[in-house]
Amino acid sequence: MRIDVLTVLPGLFDCFLKEGVIGKAISSGKVEVKVHNIRDFTTDKHRVVDDVPYGGGPGMVLKPEPIFRAYDELTKEGEKPYVLLTEPWGEKFNQEMAVELSKKPRLMIICGRYEGVDERVKSLVDREVSIGDYVLTGGELPAMVIMDAVLRLIPGVLGNLESLRADSFSDRGLLGYPNYTRPAEFRGMKVPEVLLSGHHKKIESWRKEQSLRKTLERRPEIIENLKRKGLLTKEELE
Ligand SMILES: Nc1cc(-c2ccc3cc[nH]c3c2)n[nH]1
Q1: Residue 156 falls within a domain, yes or no?
Q2: Under a CB-based contact definition with an 8 Å cutoff, are residues 10 and 38 in contact?
Q3: Is 0.90 surpassed by the pTM of this model?
Q4: What's the CA-to-centroid distance between 16 and ligand 1, angstroms?
Q5: Residue at which a domain ends, from 102, 123, 151
Q6: Based on the domain organization, do 13 and 118 belong to the same domain?
Q7: What is the number of the ligand 1 atom nearest to the C-alpha of 111?
Q8: pLDDT category, 164, cuts 50, 70, 90?
Q9: Which atom of ligand 1 is nearest to the CA of 115?
Q10: What is the pLDDT of residue 148?
């Protein structure tokens, strides 16, 4: 997968693209992420990317020209990207969307700043995406959240062990099961016996039951949604 990011603050992505699972996936060539400074697509001496809003009002708006120039330049060759715009009021990002986006060969993520992008930029956009009902100072952190959730789903990115994990839980949006590691008892708190039993079938069913129970308690709407879609097995429904 290739992702192109358009932003006026490219430096925000430096650590994100170097460290951890994502950093390894990029350095190993499993995925390609290119961050582009919108300012590099201006044509004036002062490299202006924003301007005052028509009709008045506070703040500045990202101009359409530099963004369109970047889009035209970056889509001259290769597959057309599926274009995302991060917005506070976009479609809510979730695991289902992450799975869908992970199947696209190429993505482009446009990051807003200031009061947002000129409305005409949205003619380039396939999906306006929100990571939650709160307003940030820009679209870069949402872009990193989306990239993190999407890129970890690309085959080979999580490595062999992790990819065998029961991701069918998180891929269905179920909450995770409790995790423990040594010591078996810590400050009087013991690890559940089943996890020490070495009985893999029992451990698997305990984990599934814990995940379903936690989801039912904290996010019952996820269970209802899976039921409606027929994505819960008979035994999971019991
Ligand atoms: N989910 C979410 C997205 C945003 C966001 C996205 C773009 C801009 C541009 C200026 N402020 C922004 C905030 N906040 N919260």
Answers
A1: no
A2: no
A3: yes
A4: 18
A5: 151
A6: yes
A7: 7
A8: very low
A9: 10
A10: 98
> Pocket residues for ligand 1 (CB within 6 Å)?
86-88, 112-113, 116, 130-132, 134-139, 142
**Which residues touch 60 (CB under 8 Å, ≥6 apart)?**
50, 51, 52, 53, 114, 115
What is the C-alpha to C-alpha distance for residues 216 and 52, in angstroms, rounded to an integer? 48
Q: Which atom of ligand 1 is nearest to the CA of 132?
A: 1
pLDDT band at 142 (very low <50, low <70, confident <90, very high): very high
pLDDT at 236: 83
Predicted complex: ipTM over 0.90: yes
Where does residue 156 rank: exposed (0-12), middle (13-18), buried (19+ CB within 10 A)? Answer: exposed
Q: How many domains does the chain have?
A: 2
Q: Is residue 36 part of a domain?
A: yes
Distance 24 CA to ligand 1 centre (A): 28
Catalytic residues, by residue number, are: 88, 115, 152, 167
* Domain extent at residue 137: 2-151
